[in-house]
């Protein structure tokens, strides 16, 4: 920055010039911090902005995010697609839970819906069956607790009952959750 601004030893500055140099310096530091954060993993724009705001003012954080977008280092659509893929296929989250998690990362609803529309009800059923056969396998002696836990994870009652019937597990009171 010293070379770019042609600053030499013994240079004198007015208060406005110093404030301008300080602003440019802070923005450069924010950009460097953004590079550092993005070197570990990808972020949504809001997520990166929030992290930068912990160390810099909102103008510097916004300028750094703009620069990262210009360079193609942050792209909410690509990030959303990758995160949704991870949440649904690896973590076996429901579509509802995936939507909620993506919303909390600051991704636009339209982008989320565009990314999630590729996943069908078959994916939901597969995820439910996988969860029932792995994580909830030992708890299937009390299906009502399993149903409640899966509903808290965003699965619908009808989907859960269908998956339980596929595994030949009967629920006590099917009208309880309606």
- The CATH class of the largest domain turns out to be Mainly Alpha
The CA-CA distance between the termini, in Å, is 65 Å
Overall body shape: elongated
Helical proportion, percent range: 55-70%
Rounded to the nearest angstrom, the radius of gyration is: 25 Å
> pLDDT average, as an integer?
85
Count of alpha/pi helices = 9
Determine the CATH topology of the largest domain: Arc Repressor Mutant, subunit A
What's the number of domains? 3
Q: Would you identify the CATH architecture of the largest domain? A: Orthogonal Bundle
Features:
Arc Repressor Mutant, subunit A, 178 residues, 3 domains, mainly alpha, 0% strand
Structural overview:
The protein is mostly helical and 178 residues long. The protein folds into three domains: 15-74, Arc Repressor Mutant, subunit A (Orthogonal Bundle), CATH 1.10.10; 76-119; 120-178. It has nine helices and no strands. Helix 4 packs antiparallel against helix 5. It is elongated, with a radius of gyration of 25 Å. The N and C termini lie far apart (65 Å). The mean pLDDT is 85.
